[in-house]
């Protein structure tokens, strides 16, 4: 057994862990980061990056088809998969490690387990942390308790985003972000997709109009969308999978993708050694200190369950690092369900803050106004003729934005302006003077303010 001593030890080299380690090392602290699998984490190799690589080609072809004179043609599936492989560097992290090395961060490969306060065991080595330990282990796909499901070894996001071939048919369990994105991606790449959502609609946390538009688009592209469809049994044989629904209907496909939520990666972390439970996400205070181990243990990213989004993991990494450095940081006022978020389907859904329903449920005197994304001169050039809606949710008492949603072709970047307005508590009367350029689609803000009555 050997010991190594650092100021801070980070368990998990995904976006949150990297952000924390980089900020700490940049401030002069010695840092070790422990990673069992790939430096860069789920998002780089099995999530955001490969999924967008699978989605973007069909969307680019669709946009070309909306521009008179542009040439749109069938997808080259082999080329799409090859480009995806290059984006994930063929599931090797050699291109990620130099970032750590350039900042003097020590990388220790293996499973990190907490042995005692401020002590992390990695194989035969104990890493001693003078100031603290940060857990940034992320999450994995959750499997719902459906008879036979686990035994059939279904796809999760990990298999779906890096598959070597496109199955002739695909069943998708779950109509959240991953389910909708992968259903559209695989349908566009030639698979016959059936999407099963047990709830009353897709994308349950977003505005109802956003769910309706995404569902309509999926159906237009050929996806068989089933709402309030409950799977009760799953079997697999040499021909593929069979799913039995609650009403007795049997569905078959070459593959089955489960996109029914995530679970925090707290297994085998040694939490019991310091009196903590490994049942569910780690509960944290506003500085991301783990409750029951304040003063030395932090948890950032998916593992704390606050907001399962890469950008929020990075944001939390900075907050935890600042607290360890003794710097003033604000509480997570803008985290959790109010985080900016994007569904990269076609139409895209870009949202931040409250929906109208969630604002009213929170006791806010909320009013929503809508505008057509096709109502600007800029829509003649991008997303031409595609359905889309912009909505702002206004706190009538404070006259500030508390939510915004944009749907349509290529609207992902619209959400940041709304995020700034919400985080900055900018008065809506002041926003009227932020004049958007002509002819851009950002003039939809003028349409929204006019609809509000400014």
Give me a quick take on this structure.
The chain is an alpha/beta fold and 454 residues long. The chain has 13 helices and 21 strands.
Write up this protein.
This protein is of the alpha/beta class. It has 3 domains: 2-140 and 263-324, FAD/NAD(P)-binding domain (3-Layer(bba) Sandwich), CATH 3.50.50.60; 150-260, FAD/NAD(P)-binding domain; 347-452, 2-Layer Sandwich (Enolase-like, domain 1), CATH 3.30.390.30. Helices cover 28% and strands 26% of the residues. The protein is built from 13 helices and 21 strands. The chain has helices at residues 15-26, 41-46, 48-65, 77-87, 97-102, 157-162, 177-188, 208-220, 310-324, 356-361, 415-423, 428-431, 444-452; strands spanning 2-11, 31-35, 106-109, 112-116, 119-122, 125-135, 139-141, 169-173, 192-197, 224-227, 231-237, 240-245, 250-253, 255-258, 262-264, 297-299, 341-343, 348-353, 366-372, 389-395, 400-408.
């Amino acid at each position: 057994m050997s010991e190594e001593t650092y100021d801070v030890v980070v368990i998990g080299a995904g976006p949150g862990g990297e952000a924390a380690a980089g900020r700490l090392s940049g401030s002069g602290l010695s840092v070790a980061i422990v990673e069992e699998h790939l430096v860069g984490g789920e998002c780089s190799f099995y999530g955001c990056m490969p999924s967008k690589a699978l989605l973007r080609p069909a969307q680019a072809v669709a946009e070309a088809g909306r521009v008179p004179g542009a040439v749109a043609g069938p997808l080259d599936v082999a080329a799409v998969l090859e480009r995806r492989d290059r984006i994930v560097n063929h599931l090797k992290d050699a291109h990620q490690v130099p970032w750590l090395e350039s900042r003097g961060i020590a990388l220790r490969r293996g499973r990190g387990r907490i042995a005692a306060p401020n002590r992390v065991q990695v194989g035969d080595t104990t890493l001693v942390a003078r100031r603290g330990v940060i857990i940034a282990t992320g999450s994995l796909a959750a499997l719902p308790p459906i008879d036979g499901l686990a035994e059939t070894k279904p796809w999760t996001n990990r298999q779906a985003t890096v598959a070597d071939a496109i199955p002739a048919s695909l069943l998708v369990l779950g109509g959240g972000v991953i389910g909708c994105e992968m259903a559209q991606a695989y349908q566009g790449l030639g698979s016959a997709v059936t999407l099963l959502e047990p709830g009353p609609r897709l994308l349950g946390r977003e505005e109802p109009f956003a769910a309706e538009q995404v569902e309509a688009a999926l159906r237009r592209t050929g996806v068989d969308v089933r709402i309030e469809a409950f799977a009760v049994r799953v079997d697999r044989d040499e021909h593929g999978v069979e799913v039995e629904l609650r009403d007795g209907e049997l569905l078959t496909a070459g593959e089955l993708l489960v996109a029914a939520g995530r679970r925090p990666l707290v297994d085998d972390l040694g939490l019991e050694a310091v009196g903590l439970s490994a049942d569910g996400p780690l509960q944290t205070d506003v500085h991301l200190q783990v409750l029951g181990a304040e003063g030395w243990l932090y948890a950032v990213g998916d593992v704390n369950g606050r907001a399962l989004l890469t950008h929020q993991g990075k944001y939390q990494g900075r907050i935890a690092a600042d607290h360890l450095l003794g710097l003033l940081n604000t509480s997570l006022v803008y985290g959790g369900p109010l985080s900016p978020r994007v569904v990269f389907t076609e139409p895209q859904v870009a949202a931040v803050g409250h929906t109208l329903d969630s604002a009213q449920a929170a006791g806010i005197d909320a009013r929503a106004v809508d505008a057509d994304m096709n109502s600007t001169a800029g829509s003649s050039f991008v997303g031409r003729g595609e359905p889309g809606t912009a909505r702002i949710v206004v706190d009538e008492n404070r006259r500030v934005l508390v939510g915004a949603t944009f749907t349509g072709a290529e609207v992902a970047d619209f959400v940041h302006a709304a995020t700034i307005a919400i985080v900055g508590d900018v008065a809506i009367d002041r926003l009227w003077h932020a004049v958007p350029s002509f002819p851009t689609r950002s003039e939809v803000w003028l349409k929204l303010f006019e609809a509000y009555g400014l």
